[in-house]
Amino acid sequence: MRLSVRVDDPGYDSKAFGAKVFVDEIEITLCHTADEEQGVAVCYIADAKGQPTADPTWPFRAAEVIRRGAVRIVPGPGAP
């Protein structure tokens, strides 16, 4: 399964909001795209307060990290 909160992503689904993402059974927060088949989760890098940090190389964009491993997506409330 692939879920994304980004409208331009092929895995976009409004039900993705509130889903939980786990990589190697560790919950990862601030993920905007996750794919169980590819074993990839794309997430924002959080600061000490848990807020996304700015990308130093691209103004007005949040910094991201790609996490790889055994990805498991738990759909959020409202998902079938």
Structure description:
The model has no long low-confidence stretch (mean pLDDT 91). Helices cover 0% and strands 36% of the residues. It has one domain (2-74). It has strands spanning 2-4, 20-23, 26-28, 31-35, 40-44, 64-68, 71-74. The chain contains no helices and seven strands. Strands 1-4-5-6 form a four-stranded antiparallel sheet, with no helix packed on it. The chain is an all-beta fold.
Write the layout of secondary structure elements.
Layout: E1 2-4, E2 20-23, E3 26-28, E4 31-35, E5 40-44, E6 64-68, E7 71-74
Q: Which spans have pLDDT < 50 for at least 5 consecutive residues?
A: none
Q: Into which percent range does the helicity of residues fall?
A: under 10%
Q: Helix segment count?
A: 0
**Major sheet characteristics:** 4 strands, antiparallel
Strand order of the largest sheet: 1-4-5-6
Amount of beta strand: 35-45%
**Total individual domains:** 1
Q: In terms of structural class, how would the helical and strand content be classed?
A: mainly beta
Order of helices and strands: EEEEEEE
The termini sit apart by 13 Å
Q: Report the radius of gyration as a whole number of Å.
A: 13 Å
Taking all residues together, what is the mean pLDDT? 91
Would you report the number of β strands? 7
